[in-house]
Amino acid sequence: MSQTPPPAATPALRDVQVIAPNFKRRLSGVTATVMRLVPLQARDIAIVATGPVVPPHVPQIPLSALWRLPPSGPDGPRVWHARRNVEMIGGLALKYLLGKRLKLMFTSASQRKQSGLTRWLIRRMDAVVATSSLTASYLEGDSEVIMHGIDTSGFAPTDDRGALRAQLGLPTDGPLIGCYGRIRAQKGTDAYVEAMIRVLPEHPAAKALVMGRAVGDDATFLRGLEQKVAQAGLADRILFLPEVPVEEMARWYQVLDLYVAPQRWEGFGLTPIEAMATGCPVVATRVGAFETLVREGQTGTLVDPGDIPALADAVASVLDDPAKLHGWRAQARAHVETEYSLEREAQSLIAIYRRLLVA
131 with 108: CB under 8 angstroms? Predict the structure, then answer.
């Protein structure tokens, strides 16, 4: 596997041109996007992340430094690139309460009607990006569509899945199916578990992984799933694993034969392209951007959200046809390299930053 070049050093505070805030402590798709993009973008523009938890490899400034930020950047305004309401509010506060010269930019991944507050905030942005054409259709004003991408050097196939499975303490034989991300009903974790309860008895060599974090009331939801698996006698074949850091995720896709994205609702959804980048085909629901990301019958297949029998049948069909699975593996990697590289996303965003910096 090729190695990702080291990120650029954090610029001096006075030289910062772009700030990418991430005000959420817990892992999310938005957090993952920021932490992967900023080191790559920092090779071409003076960008930093800021937030309560930013990994050390990401060029960054502490939240406290925002108050000390010189009013202007090295050549005029700076760009504040928000991806959540709270971050848009933060940018507005810095600009209008603290007098910082900022151009405000927002990326939307939502595929539903915006709240009144969100629409009010978006109207005050200088540039708006949508992560898909469907997302753009929910926005009132103009936006530029830039699809998410993946670091295809970090997310790449492994030469020896068996050895990597052993290293991670996973079963080394038989097909391995995975579902990663927040554990909750919206993400369809229960649909995945129930589908696996149907599929695995008919495929005795296969095992399934559930990885992620259950927060608040979702902890009870998780316990219910674990009990259901135990009652089905599959506790040794449907394995519940804790969340791992963003920088470790590629290995957990590399060990899989098939990835399942069972969401009932999704803004964009990075996991299918993360999986496909490692050569892992995907069974996904028709939500978010999944219908665009997954090429039906070439890199995976799609089912309706919440349709557990269809989800189970789709997984079983792939497991029953090793030749199909092998063909999908070969096409999945090439598809992501061509259409969804992180470099393409990074450069498209930088082009907008540069326009704003000189506007």
Answer: yes
| pLDDT tens digits along 298-342 | 999 999 999 999 999 999 999 999 999 999 998 999 999 988 989
Domain presence at residue 1: no
| φ/ψ of residue 189, rounded to 5 | -60, -40
pTM over 0.90: no
Q: How many residues in total does the chain contain?
A: 359
Q: What is the residue range of 266's domain?
A: 161-339
266 and 354, same domain (yes or no): no
Total number of domains in the chain: 2
CA distances to 182, 227, 325 from 214, rounded to whole Å, are 6, 15, 31
Distance between terminal CA atoms of the chain? 41
Return the H-helix or E-strand segment holding 80. Answer: strand 78-82
Strand partners, 49: 20, 60
CA distance 309 to 192: 10
